[in-house]
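Render this sequence as a predicted structure.
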Amino acid sequence: MKVGIIGAGTMGCGIAQAFAQCEGFDVYLCDINEAFAVNGKTRIATGLAKLVAKEKVTRDFADGLLARITTGEKAICKDAQLVIEAALEDMNVKKQTFKELESIVGDDCIFATNTSSLSITEIGAGLGRPVVGMHFFNPADRMQLVEVIAGLNTPAAIVDKIKEIAVAIKKEPVEVAEAPGFVVNRILMPMINEAIGILAEGVACAEGIDAAMRLGANHPMGPLALADLVGLDVVLAIMNVLHEETGDQKYRAHPLLKKMVRGKLLGRKTQKGFYEYK
């Protein structure tokens, strides 16, 4: 199966690797220009080289995986059977991306979006084919869950096909009805937001908050470390969607989160968030 991935950032690269590490899938990793796409593949290669050095995977496995990834702009997806959009979490960007793809891909190509919170129905509005949500989690090559989300106009047959594809790449699909934040982020992001509030109030330091949740709730990672991994800009974007869509004040983003995003303290991607990374 030929799969196009639109967006060679953290999630796009992870999704590309998730497919390419399974036999039977050829991947087109795309971005707004060839250089960005190549940089994405280079990041994948760098990560694989570390795994080879640690003898977690063989050199032959890594070489085979990389050989199944082709880079370029979205025009290379002309014969793709599935395209997964993993661009910015911005409604206009996503809608424009799919609009452009309609004139590139074949009629049988399935459109999927990796949105973490936006309306599948709205993303697909005005297109000549339905859109389905295929929400991976970071790091996408390792995390097992894929939320499969049907919009109002998504046929059941496409949902079932996406679930089959998820299983084929060794993921566990969970079907979710369209709703703000779906399941995981509807629960997770308010928890992170609350942890930020606890930090801002001086109840405990970042290390203490994270230790409490690891040791007291058996979480593998504390909420503030997780926020740094996800990206504070992503956390804020999802909280804003939850707040706007529901009107519920419990989803109002904490001022400290907004301040850190304005200051470009986004977590691992900027080497500083609640913790520093070098």
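Summary. The domain at 185-268 is CATH 1.10.1040.10 (N-(1-d-carboxylethyl)-l-norvaline Dehydrogenase; domain 2). The radius of gyration is 19 Å.
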